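Hi W.,

Here's what went into the run:
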Amino acid sequence: MALRSYLHSTFDPRRIPGLQAWYDAADSSSITLDAGRVSQWSDKSGNARHATNTTSGSTQPSYTVGARNGLNVLTFAAASVQRLTVPSSTAAFNYLHNGTPSYFAAVSRFGTTANPNAAYMLCGNSGGASANTGFVCLYDDRSSASRNNASNVGISRGVLGQFAVVSLVNDIIVPQEFVVQEHLLSAANATASQRSLVSIDGATYQGANTLTSAPSAGNATYSMQLGAAGDNALPLQGDICELMFFSQLPTAAARDMIRRYLGAKWGVTVA
Amino acid sequence: MTTHRFFATSDATYEAMRAAVDSAWGYPTPQTLTCVPPAVEQWHDDEGRVVIALTLDWLAWEPVPSMIGGAIVAGVVTEIDEATFWRAAPMPEM
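Here's what came out:
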């Protein structure tokens, strides 16, 4: 059996402690279509944190068959502000912003041009505003803000002008290419640079946060969105293949397993 | 390549048109509650108008084209350009 098939058939993220939500576009049984567009992306973790959009048509992402490695993906169009929302989830993802050491991994593709000069949200529940509470994770290529092919993670603590974390790492994501990204979050870490770390395709983790304010223990301002920031801000132009959230930090060996599973499955070379 | 057209209107007009399209298409159903998001969830420009981007295929499904065409003629819906649409986007600090 080929390694790729073997990894597909044997790896199950539910065996790794702390899995809170798992979205897998390759599993068509987890997708509900509404006139050809996605109205629900079901959570496979067992926690029923399904991401939905029950508004017909323009704001629902597309389900693109065989788009990557023969597997189906969700395709989001920014101009239509296409997104999915986990309903009533303002308390469900607190581990991402309240200082709990946590982890999430995703396979996605950002942009449809070589130089998007835009910001595209992978997921978030804060709207990206400091006065709100929550988290955002985005691809950021806005030249006006000196950002170029960056991974940008922000954790808001409900205080205007005082984020708990802003970790902007430039020149790390190639637009139009599928990437495996992993994030380690620890918003209360006394070492600022360790509050948010990102690895792309298994490369060494990098962090750029310098902020030291304490995170909020409260709920997020908005429910979690995939493809937008919670309030529809910075909508995604691109694809999401798979996304998994953990409310604790998996061991290095477990993260290695997750990375190899995602890379093999989606045809992304990982270190 | 043109994929969308962009429009601006008042909340009241938007909600009236949303209700009309929902009625024509038989919404709500178990999978689909409405044809477009309620006005309160949509972006608004600095004149307080709802702005919306509609795909060309969506614009081809009746009663949308005849309804929007009539609304534009009546002056209650304005077609805007893409830049105007994006200026209404929420402005996060991130």
